[in-house]
């Protein structure tokens, strides 16, 4: 009888242990699945960031929606706070980088409307260069290791999630390497400065050139050649006006 009681107790303990293991296992499986769901969700957000036409409403909805629960949810909220700030930075830079006014500065319509002093165009160039320089500093600061980890530290999440947090935030690559982004901005600034030089040239020589039926006419060949030289430094103009047929004297 005593042996039977012992066996019952042992079997009961074994069953409880098995059930406990199954329960813990199910929690681990659920936790791992939520981590995978979060990875997929963050990847989708990054993919939306890279679209030519940003769907602001859709991105904001994704940033405010959650795919996890429990402690994973705490991590997700911190990661999405980081991405929300990243998205604001993306929008700020996009406003400048995709501003069509840059490529319209040398349009015949703008040249005629803003001559002889080109006050509007030159002020726009000055403001845009300042904004671009500021954006470089903002991107540098945002992508520092210190700033990235600060979101995690401020949230005081369990250290278990640190590696996953770093993995998820490192998926943000809209600007690429900060140095590469700075180089790209420097190239754009150089283009704006080249356009500004053209406007200065046209301002200094106002009355010695005109635009008739879409074509430039200069007083002499020296002015024509100087104008072509200045234009050669503007990449987008060279792509669209390769043969300079609209520039004459």
Automatic annotation (TrEMBL):
Q: Which residues cross the membrane?
A: 6-29
Keywords assigned by UniProt, alphabetized: Coiled coil, Membrane, Transmembrane, Transmembrane helix
Which residue stretches, if any, does this entry annotate as coiled coil? 178-205
Membrane recorded as keyword: yes
List the protein's name. Uncharacterized protein
Per the UniProt record, the source organism is Candidatus Aphodocola excrementigallinarum
